[in-house]
Amino acid sequence: MQDPKDIQDIKRPSKELIDKLYKHVSSATAAGDLKKIGVSNAFIQGPTPFTPGKKIVGPAATLQFMPKRDDIYGDGEYVEPETQLHRHALYGTQPGDVIVVDARGSMSSGVFGNMMLTYFVGAGGIGAVIDGCIRDFPEAPEMGLWLKGVTPNFHTQTEIFPYAVNVPIACSGTYVAPGDIIIADDDGAVVVPIHLAEELAERGQVHAEWEEFSRLKLEQGGDLRLYYPLSDEARPEYEEWKKANGQ
Q: Is the torsion defined by CA of 235, 241, 243, 245 positive or negative?
């Protein structure tokens, strides 16, 4: 189990980059465009949206759970709280952070409850993506939640225990490095490798612009073959539309 003194903070992207991704890139756009630039499946399959209508974009702080073994981790919800790494995963929270948890798909351990999540949101956290459950769901603070489920059990009650913070994790089988950017909405959560985030933001802006034009044309009865995807034949019309709309 990681020594709390060894926990490293994450590197956070600029606010400008986060804003650009939030404005122009949905989880679907992220998944599709990442495929084009070399990441075939960045979708964190398993956690589903428990707060419909929420969209979050932010850097990932990570928490890794491991199978419980009594000689490494004893029983008790509140035994020696400062040795419990799920607390330390939240101590470094800064505004805009997303907590991403590899809880091994456990449906019987509540990784966080209302008090822990309230602390996280109070420190500026905006969402959680958990390959597992939380508890106290009805009292959870206003934030984005992508979960496998909910449970009344506390975090180490059954089969897992918190093992490491801000290390690479496998969240529902998807590699997430601390500081990668999470884009999550009603379609699910996608991890954006930090070194590809700028390129994705640029692609996403272009994608969003032509899709807006194409959607308008399709609403007017336009030919799907002409407007989706945008064909070379329709591109001059698209360029004129951009000029007319100051884009």
A: negative
Question: Which residues partner with 110 through β-bridges?
Answer: 133
Helix-helix angle 197-219:27-36, to 10 degrees: 120
Q: Which pLDDT tens digit goes with each residue over 78-125?
A: 566 677 899 999 999 999 999 999 999 999 999 999 999 999 999 999
Cβ pair 84, 48 in contact under 8 A: no
CATH of the domain spanning 4-192, picked from 3.30.1330.80, 1.50.10.10, 3.50.30.40, 3.80.10.10:
3.50.30.40
Predicted TM-score (pTM) of the model is 0.89
- Region at 18 (left for phi over 0; alpha for psi -120 to 50; beta for the rest): alpha
Token pair in block for residue 142: 């206003």
Q: Return the number of other C-beta atoms located less than 10 Å from residue 162's C-beta.
A: 25
